Automatic annotation (TrEMBL):
InterPro entries named among the record's database cross-references: NERD
Protein name: NERD domain-containing protein
Top-level taxon of origin: Bacteria
Residue ranges of the region described as Disordered: 310-335
Comp. bias (Polar residues): 325-335
Organism expressing this protein natively: Ornithinibacillus caprae
Signal peptide: none
Domain spans labelled NERD: 41-161
Length: 344
């Protein structure tokens, strides 16, 4: 059973919003594109793992995808957490291509692809660090001890794993994705003592769902984006001309004549991702290049956003992250990039 589904991460939504907001002359920055490609590759690798788990379901297991928890002032993130009454399993997922050499003496992962050779942090050690964090997190909340296993999963189907020392201790710790189902079966067979009863699992489920704290990010600050870099008004989703104008209760592109009655919704949601989690009527008018406060009021109200305050002080609040569109379009020149993708 999947108790928490994976949605597109906040940082990817922010990158895509930024691409829609940036002028064409500045959005093709290599630094911007490479970082976006890295996060996107990671997300795709995680989704591939989600699919594998969905077609090899394990009875009486609860799956949490993309979980970020706090230990005091610090946070730790688990790509996939599998909870059963007998044990807990942590999956650390990497989307890496090429030949991957793992040296158990130095605990380094070396990636070779073409003429490129790159060192990566040990995904085995990363998973073990998450295990230690999770043990503390469970202890702090009074849960009884339970075995916790970790698996580092390479999700790219074209990758080749090389165990430099033929170290048997890592054969089931660093694996290709297709080996995940049989290894999970072995773990479920290995542990046969119930550590959690039904009440404890229900309590843990509530704790995990309520404690999840998605990573926030500020790309405007990170990439030093200035007002001169940004589009004013609503860009046309067909030809990218801006601003679209409001005519007869819809948005009209003066260049290609495309009409879109809900073009403002995408821009307002992008504003929430990039600038602020609230918006006022005045800010909405500036954002959409509108003169009428009544029109701005109707558009905001029609989006069914929660609001606080009254009259000119009323603020409309961003929806929960999982309600943001998962398949919003991005500019064609970004969408068609042939990324040299590799996960961090």
């Amino acid at each position: 059973m999947i108790n928490k589904f994976r949605t597109k991460p906040h940082i990817i939504l922010c990158f895509e919003a930024l691409f829609r907001f940036l002028k064409k002359t500045v959005r093709n920055s290599n630094l911007l594109l490479e970082e976006y490609a890295s996060y996107l590759a990671g997300y795709r690798g995680e989704k591939a793992t989600d699919y594998t788990l969905s077609i090899y379901p394990h009875k009486n297991s609860w799956i949490y995808q993309d979980l970020r928890l706090n230990n005091g002032p610090f946070h730790f993130q688990i790509d996939t957490l599998i909870v059963t009454a007998k044990l807990i399993i942590i999956l650390e997922i990497k989307n890496l291509r090429g030949e991957l050499e793992y040296d158990s003496r130095t605990q380094q992962l070396i990636q070779k692809y073409g003429n490129v050779k790159k060192r990566h942090k040990s995904p085995i050690l990363q998973a073990e660090a998450q295990k230690m964090n999770l043990i503390k997190w469970l202890n702090d909340r009074g849960f009884p001890p339970i075995p916790i296993e970790t698996i580092a999963v390479i999700s790219n189907p074209s990758s080749i794993l090389v165990n430099v020392q033929d170290d048997p201790s890592i054969f089931n710790k660093l694996i290709n994705l297709e080996n995940l189902p049989p290894i999970l079966n072995d773990l479920f067979d290995k542990y046969n003592v119930n550590r959690f009863d039904k009440k404890t699992i229900t309590e843990l489920n509530n704790y995990l769902l309520n404690a999840h704290n998605p990573l926030d990010t500020d790309l405007i600050k990170q990439f030093n984006v200035t007002e001169n870099n940004l589009i004013k008004g609503i860009p046309c989703s067909k030809c990218e001309h801006y601003p679209m104008v409001r005519q007869n209760k819809t948005w009209f592109c003066q260049k290609c004549h495309h009409v879109d009655s809900k073009a403002h919704e995408r821009v307002i949601l992008d504003y929430f991702l990039l600038f602020n989690t609230t918006i006022t009527n005045k800010e909405c008018r500036e954002l959409l290049q509108l003169k009428s406060s009544k029109t701005a009021y109707r558009l905001l109200r029609a989006m069914n956003l929660e609001s606080t305050g009254n009259n000119s002080a009323r603020k409309y609040h961003a929806p929960p992250l999982h309600e943001f569109p998962q398949n919003s379009s991005i500019p064609n020149d970004i969408n068609s990039q042939n990324y040299n993708i590799e996960i961090r």
